[in-house]
Amino acid sequence: MSNLTAVDLLPMSPFAKKIYALTKDFVENECIPAEHIYQDQLGKGPDRFKWVPPILADLKKKARALGLWNLFLTEEYGPLSPGLTTMEYAVICELLGRSSLAPPATNCAAPDTGNMELLAKFGNEEQKKKWLKPLMEGEIRSTFAMTEPGVASSDATNISTSITPTADGKHYIINGHKHWQSNFSHPDTKVLLLVGKTRSDGPRHGMLSVIILPKDTPGVEFVRHMTVYGYDHAPSGHDELKFNDCKVPKENLILGEGRGFEILQGRLGGGRIHHAMRTLGVGQRALELMLLECVNEKKKPFGVLKGDQGKIQWDIAQSRIQLEQCKQLVYMAAKAMDVKGLKEARFEIAMAKVAVPYQVCEIIDRAMQVYGGLGVSQSTELAHMWAMIRHLRFADGPDEAHAAQLARAELKNTANIRKTYDEYKRKELELRKTVKSLL
Amino acid sequence: MSNLTAVDLLPMSPFAKKIYALTKDFVENECIPAEHIYQDQLGKGPDRFKWVPPILADLKKKARALGLWNLFLTEEYGPLSPGLTTMEYAVICELLGRSSLAPPATNCAAPDTGNMELLAKFGNEEQKKKWLKPLMEGEIRSTFAMTEPGVASSDATNISTSITPTADGKHYIINGHKHWQSNFSHPDTKVLLLVGKTRSDGPRHGMLSVIILPKDTPGVEFVRHMTVYGYDHAPSGHDELKFNDCKVPKENLILGEGRGFEILQGRLGGGRIHHAMRTLGVGQRALELMLLECVNEKKKPFGVLKGDQGKIQWDIAQSRIQLEQCKQLVYMAAKAMDVKGLKEARFEIAMAKVAVPYQVCEIIDRAMQVYGGLGVSQSTELAHMWAMIRHLRFADGPDEAHAAQLARAELKNTANIRKTYDEYKRKELELRKTVKSLL
Amino acid sequence: MSNLTAVDLLPMSPFAKKIYALTKDFVENECIPAEHIYQDQLGKGPDRFKWVPPILADLKKKARALGLWNLFLTEEYGPLSPGLTTMEYAVICELLGRSSLAPPATNCAAPDTGNMELLAKFGNEEQKKKWLKPLMEGEIRSTFAMTEPGVASSDATNISTSITPTADGKHYIINGHKHWQSNFSHPDTKVLLLVGKTRSDGPRHGMLSVIILPKDTPGVEFVRHMTVYGYDHAPSGHDELKFNDCKVPKENLILGEGRGFEILQGRLGGGRIHHAMRTLGVGQRALELMLLECVNEKKKPFGVLKGDQGKIQWDIAQSRIQLEQCKQLVYMAAKAMDVKGLKEARFEIAMAKVAVPYQVCEIIDRAMQVYGGLGVSQSTELAHMWAMIRHLRFADGPDEAHAAQLARAELKNTANIRKTYDEYKRKELELRKTVKSLL
Amino acid sequence: MSNLTAVDLLPMSPFAKKIYALTKDFVENECIPAEHIYQDQLGKGPDRFKWVPPILADLKKKARALGLWNLFLTEEYGPLSPGLTTMEYAVICELLGRSSLAPPATNCAAPDTGNMELLAKFGNEEQKKKWLKPLMEGEIRSTFAMTEPGVASSDATNISTSITPTADGKHYIINGHKHWQSNFSHPDTKVLLLVGKTRSDGPRHGMLSVIILPKDTPGVEFVRHMTVYGYDHAPSGHDELKFNDCKVPKENLILGEGRGFEILQGRLGGGRIHHAMRTLGVGQRALELMLLECVNEKKKPFGVLKGDQGKIQWDIAQSRIQLEQCKQLVYMAAKAMDVKGLKEARFEIAMAKVAVPYQVCEIIDRAMQVYGGLGVSQSTELAHMWAMIRHLRFADGPDEAHAAQLARAELKNTANIRKTYDEYKRKELELRKTVKSLL
């Protein structure tokens, strides 16, 4: 089937088309073939978080030489940006999503991407120089410390970690308990961007602040690696941490006390759409794996290829349609970001946030069902994909919260619909005066 | 919520933007306010198929004066076309779909649209002059006679109506039994385009032909009106017909004996996407109706607005997301048609064909559930919408057939995927030679 | 496939088994063969509500002679009851649900069943003699007047129809506006049981009363027949009514002023489970119709029986499983009613109320899809079934309301679950003291 | 909410009621409190498969003393059976499913249960003495070696492992490659029941045989532990194995050469229903966990308890309804087995096999969504439950295969339905002669 590729149908600049082609080549010919080697190079047992498989450094070098670097910093970041629009990046990021190695190899991996965006938007020159620069160079990695155990973190005002100024005003002392700090254990990670409360009273949205916490600060305590469906996601991990009187200079505060909520809005919105873009690539690969098993000549229960079973054909078609619908939704949201900006495009982003991981989970699950036991085991990538994508249905806020926000926006807009329908009625009554009904 | 409108985000020509604006105004200010009047002007009881509510003629006059006429004839029809691309028409047709009066008022209603396309593509000059011209002028209407009772008509080779040349070769005699001839009873309908067999042996795809059958030909017998969930869809109807030795001149055959299959491919593909486009407008209105009831201050079970119920907010969000995904899928398919042509875009069309009516049915059904009894009664348009859109899940071929075609195309393409994955493996083995594994 | 029949597996008394066998014979050999004749005997056009097709009287005579009469009055109604338990009636009512003629033929049709239950439970001797007796004899029929337009009637406290005592205390005057009064137009209907407010202040649940309103009372005004999808359901109908100063003697009040809420609880609970029981029979017939088309030798698209398509086999299996799950749920709820009584079994009833119509709608819809056009037209019973069963998803309260009640009951019970889990923890700690861990 | 318990509603013998009460007490007060201790006692890293946590031995001792032992051997096993019917065991096994420790503690764990059934039904006295006895005593454990990599094992005729008689006819030599041998690595496992081919030609169903293969036979080669999602399920595991010229005495063959297919039918049918029974208990616990988080006072996003969100209430209700429907379906299938025997009840079993894991997966997934990150991590049991239950959708044959079998059985039965409907028509025509239609 001659599929449309987005690059043919969407208005991409010549530069974007070039980057697209380079990325495609890099992902297909460099990243995917390196995946099993990366796994083999990973530490085993107690060494799992001790080193980064060296093949990643090779890939990073290649990517950088090709100009495939920090692509997520779209036009709005001015001189920091390689120059893609969000829509163009969406199409390219989908390619990156095809291989778990491609985002880190191109310095486009979460949570660093969001952290770099945060520093680029809200950091001062000193902060940028000290932390953004090495992050953009790929020399260090970082984690984002927001979620806390024992509270409903989808509502940021529940955060209880404290960022308290010292009496002399020269430092902040951080105390708290957090979990799901992805990347914390990564050998290259040097810094945390931490969300906490600089005050515990006053208006809800003025309590939060974001501060830069170097990983080696005394009092930063590793508690445990969180697992996701049994996976530890080494060497990045998702860790539970405690902060015991961690002392950082006041210069580490970003933007100012009480500006945390504003910063979060900026960080999370973009992150959500990046996840959705990458998820498209995962869905694409899941569908490919499904198709390959469907035509596997060795797997013919009762003499019939799996792909010749009508129910499975139905599943293939549903998967293809869902994937295409997800793609188009992401492109649309990305275009909306380009045209209207992040804030105005928040509902389009929410749609992609809710729809894409859910539907790609369905695709992955159908692929698993075709494989049977191999589909849930280490013999395919599917179970790993499931764990990654399933968790996106609550990461950065559960589907339910985004759907409710979306619905409330629709309901708010209903006053306009009411006016329109009242106007229909008014015009109908006017029109009735002019017609001679047959009745 | 400031929704993106397609016209802002898609590359529309200035002409298309103008047509879009005119159409929007016409649908909102002329068509929708006339809907109840149209219903009131319809004949009652035995008169239901006797006349066309006169307000439609007024609307047609206005539409034509505005240049909103035959818009479905896209660029590829050359001088016959007002000049829209398929993608531009998709965006505009979605507006037409908002009112059941807008398509007939703008001469963009099925099955005439498909019939005009058929005559424009495959008719000879004489046929065009005699039938295409008055159809394009909106002077007459037409029906398409393909489906037959008692056989699986989704497979056209099952058609049994015969088109037999007379001994002298000057005429054809038509005998057969068909149903679901939409528009046949319409007072303006003057002609049928009929699919039958000019031979009953030889290659499967060479038996079918399409012929022009004037409605007043002796032997054309009305059997009954088919209902759809209890609706008769007067004055158009969907009729069961018999053909008893109907004699037409040989000049009425289109393109040539045995060319029917080729003609059908052309006619049905375009028709499917038109249905999908209009369905978007229906879905939009269903969602609006849902929202209006959600904020109806008089309908507060246990003191809570329906729109304030969490389950209903979830339904709103799902509906909005599905609608947006359907829109983007239709635009994509339309773009594909513009870029690749109808034939090459058949799988994109199939995706829209399968996905859009199904998902819009879900939207309508959720809206009904919010209304309760009023939702299924004559008090809202929802039940009527349901009947219309539900039948699209099998009209022009059931979902299952299109999904299977799509899946088989994917499976055929899997040979390429296999090659790609073999190449991944080959490159991995090559790469392994160069790395010094830590293990 | 040798299906289990409920009668083989459930503990049915010999009497119930006899009634089951008689009912089966009556439905299969008398009712179903009479269905088309009934349709033919119905009035056409303006006569649709004028008479009852005479074949129904024949069926009633036969049913009564067989003892298949008022079976819904289960044991708890003492001498009024033919003697079935609720569970036994469930199994038998499922048979009645197979034919739309069987419930009225056996005097087991809504809304009369609920009205008879109401009068039997709450009516005084005089009321029973005057109204319950002729209803039980099948001499008259009745309607239940609760739902009102323009308010959220799923919350009975929103009812606004007034029942005002006259100054002399001898009569009540009824004023109000209602709709969905099923049976009102039925030629045999002589009486309405009307829910209204005898006071408009005081405690929410003390305002409602139920009163007997003879149909021929001056001021009872027919407004229009409500349609369901496009069906009018003649000769019963679902009508919109107005009540203009309708005067009835005070003796017509049931149980006493302000007792309406209590009466409603009793009436609606039982009604819901009756609907669910009958729906099982409808689902059974829909599945049979689906299967028949699946093996229809004349309908072989591309040479393959529909039943040989894998996707359709999947649909058949899902339908069979859902039907079986629905059956078992209804039997369980019925058993719960026998064991615990209506009030205590209200959550089991709610489960059946929510699950059964939803799932049987899915079964009907799949059957339609197999038939294509015929499935939605008058050529099969499916569209009619859909209209009937779909409306049950909001009749007697929408799914959403019942689900929320059920969930709140579960949440209330969570305090006990909490205690249990705390106890698990306590025991674990105790146990830990005794084990010598290997670690 | 006062839930019905099955034990109150189903016809259970006094003995079964006693066992039910003892089991409930044992599971609640002994097994569940021991779960975390069991986890802590498990070997870590390279020791994971080295020992069985000693607390299990304590539990086994207690269970046996209470008479909670080998309960799965239902009445049909005569003197070997503790004396429960299948339906009674279903209700009790559901309790066992509440704790992953309860089945092994009561000697009711797969795959031993199926293996014991197999030996009890098909083994000779010597085989029973040597292997069934120690299995029934809980002294040893076992694995079942059927599934093979690289073939579609859901079709047993694809099995390629060879069981070749030696020239002298005194031994068999086994060669082959298998995976998913659950329990193989378990320290107590001493024996494999292996399915292979004693001949590779002749009728499809006469090639398979089952043989007893002691685990310590030379040539039995461990290849690797298969993972399920990221879990290794130590110390039982699911292993990949190779068989290299394994030599066993001819007495180890069960029932005779070529009798394997017959044996498989017996083994798998019962196993499927046991899985379904246990899954009910898993679903029950998942729902409890969901409810607990719903009322967790510390987790109130935006000040609202999760359980007070309408969407989540909807999810709770759906989960409760699905769980109840699954329970009833399993009880029904179990009753059918009691009444009709395993073979005749195979379609009822298939329904439970398809429906229960699917729906319980939905329940688990909803519970996860309520928990967010904790739901997929080691902090709750949910991700582990998901892995266990999700794999049941293809273990012992994928849903698709069972659904297709069920559908084909329905379609075969359609000849009877056809006769019934033809009879309806015949009777209608007869009846028409007697009625004087009004028309």
From TrEMBL, chains A, B, C, D:
The keyword Oxidoreductase applies. Its cofactor is FAD. Residues 19-139 form the Acyl-CoA dehydrogenase/oxidase N-terminal domain. Keywords: FAD, Flavoprotein, Oxidoreductase. SUPFAM superfamilies: Acyl-CoA dehydrogenase C-terminal domain-like (SSF47203), Acyl-CoA dehydrogenase NM domain-like (SSF56645). One of its GO terms (molecular function) is acyl-CoA dehydrogenase activity. Pfam families: Acyl-CoA_dh_1, Acyl-CoA_dh_M, Acyl-CoA_dh_N. One of its GO terms (cellular component) is cytoplasm. Residues 143-246 form the Acyl-CoA oxidase/dehydrogenase middle domain. Residues 258-409 form the Acyl-CoA dehydrogenase/oxidase C-terminal domain. One of its GO terms (biological process) is fatty acid beta-oxidation using acyl-CoA dehydrogenase. Belongs to the acyl-CoA dehydrogenase family. Homodimer. This is Acyl-CoA dehydrogenase NM domain-like protein. It comes from Gonapodya prolifera (strain JEL478) (Monoblepharis prolifera). The lineage of its organism: Eukaryota, Fungi, Fungi incertae sedis, Chytridiomycota, Chytridiomycota incertae sedis.
